[in-house]
Design a protein that fits this description.
One of its GO terms (cellular component) is neuronal dense core vesicle. By secondary structure, the chain is α+β, with helices and mostly antiparallel strands. It has 3 domains: about 35-70 and about 340-370, Helix Hairpins (Orthogonal Bundle); about 80-130 and about 180-340, atp-gated p2x4 ion channel domain (atp-gated p2x4 ion channel fold), CATH 2.60.490.10; about 385-415, no CATH class. About 25% of the residues lie in helices and about 35% in strands. It is built from 9 helices and 18 strands. The strands form 4 sheets. Strands 1, 5, 6, 7, 8, 9, 13, 14, 15 and 16 form a 10-stranded mixed beta sheet that branches. Strands 2, 10, 11 and 12 form a 4-stranded antiparallel beta sheet that branches. A two-stranded antiparallel sheet has the order 3-4. Strand 10 and strand 11 form a beta hairpin. The longest helix has 25 residues, at about 40-65.
């Protein structure tokens, strides 16, 4: 019989490739499980169980109970606010009603209650001395005043003349505009004497579209309830009628000081609703705080100007009013939540995965700080060696029992740990 001809290198390579492909296809269907080693060490066991307990407490108490992560949530409800102010007050010269001291009168979520005014009456178009508060307005002669100059923070167009001021020996440049200017003839009037007793009705309704949930802050009664009630956090939660003095007091402010300088008070309505409970458990929570920085003089306080126009003897005349007041900003926010299966599953899976942090920490302690760390390393990790003459490639371990390509190098075991 003739001797078998040696295979060519190409044929041998093809055969090796086929064997590798069959091995990979077979290994694809193998199931791999991590190696479990029990270490008899009390201190390490205490660390392991403590870490597991802390992780478990975090997820049970904080994630699920406090944060309610098992719920689907929606923030920022759709909201509408309608306000109405009632009351009368006195100044040095007249009685004021709501139509005069509330701006704007439409009853929106932002409105102002005037508590002090500085009135400049009978202003007409003409020429007069500029205010001393305007930059470069003071002068000694006409040469100090440039005709035609217009200061954006001034009160008119300069005529080029230097004229005596309204009071005192000073002089300022003459301007053409509404005269006399504000600080030359203004009269102050205080309206805040009875203002603490003003009542403010705040109607608020909210809607969470994701859950199709709506609610309002007024009790549904037909006995004229709103005509004789005022807000109380316990007994009259659904009577949203607040006294102005109560709002300022709850914001921690002195009413008299605030009425003189003006300021901004926020009425915050918070609707945090757990929709897994009854709708009656979803209630508004009110809080009050000052919004303008009162400790920064440049930006504290609140005032605005408006004018009333009329004609006297055919001449245009106006009364300029600089109003100081308490501006009320009604701010509505909240969050609603309801049980949902998807966030529950996600957070449960996260919790179960996080418990494995205890094993990682203990493995790190064993491999780094324990006296027998090398013994543990030999038991935990099998060192892989190539089978002699195998074609599986480096790093692959054949599955046949006869191949000794996976060896344990631990000589003594973990019994001594």
């Amino acid at each position: 019989m003739a001797a078998a001809e040696p295979k060519s290198p190409a044929a041998a390579g093809a055969a090796a490739a086929r064997r590798l492909a069959r091995g990979c296809w077979s290994a694809f269907w193998d199931y791999e499980t991590p190696k479990v080693i029990v270490v008899k060490n009390r201190r390490l066991g205490i660390v392991y169980r403590t870490v597991q307990l802390l992780i478990l407490l975090y997820f049970v108490w904080y994630v699920f109970i406090v944060q309610k992560s098992y719920q689907d949530s929606e923030t920022g409800p759709e909201s509408s606010v309608i306000t109405k102010v009632k009351g009368l007050t006195l100044s040095e010269h007249k009685v004021w009603d709501v139509e005069e001291y509330v701006k704007p009168p439409e009853g929106g979520s932002v409105f102002s209650i005037i508590t002090r005014i500085e009135v400049t009456s009978f202003q007409t178009l003409g020429t007069c001395a500029e205010s001393m508060r305007v930059r470069n307005a003071t002068c000694d002669s006409d040469e100090d005043c440039v005709a035609g100059q217009l200061d954006m923070l001034g009160n008119g167009l300069r005529t080029g003349r230097c004229v005596p001021y309204y009071h005192g020996p000073s002089k300022t440049c003459e301007v053409s505009g509404w005269c006399p200017v504000e600080d030359g003839a203004s009269v102050s009037q205080f309206l805040g004497k009875m203002a603490p007793n003003f009542t403010i009705l705040i109607k608020n309704s909210i809607h969470y579209p994701k859950f199709q949930f709506s609610k309002g802050n007024i009790e549904n009664r037909k006995d004229g309830y709103l005509r004789h009630c005022t807000f109380h956090e316990v007994s009259d939660l659904y009577c949203p009628i607040f006294k102005l003095g109560y709002i300022v007091e709850q914001a921690g402010e002195n009413f008299t000081e605030l009425a003189h300088t003006g300021g901004v008070i926020g009425v915050i309505i918070n609707w945090d609703c757990d929709l897994d409970l009854s709708a009656s458990m979803c209630n508004p929570k009110y809080s009050f705080r000052r919004l303008d920085p009162k400790h920064i003089p440049a930006s504290s306080g609140y005032n605005f100007r408006f004018a009333k126009y009329y004609r006297i003897n055919g001449s245009s005349t106006r009364t300029l009013i600089k109003a100081y007041g308490i501006r009320i900003d009604v701010i509505v926010h909240g969050q609603a939540g309801k049980f949902s299966l998807i966030p529950t599953i996600i957070n449960l899976a996260t919790a179960l995965t996080s418990i494995g942090v205890g094993s990682f920490l203990c493995d790190w302690i064993l491999l780094t700080f324990m006296n027998k760390n090398k013994v543990y390393s030999h038991k935990k990790f099998d060192k892989m060696v190539d089978a002699p003459g195998g074609g599986a490639g480096p790093g692959l371990c054949a599955s046949e029992p006869s191949q000794q390509d996976c060896t344990l190098t631990d000589a003594r075991g973990l019994a001594q740990l």
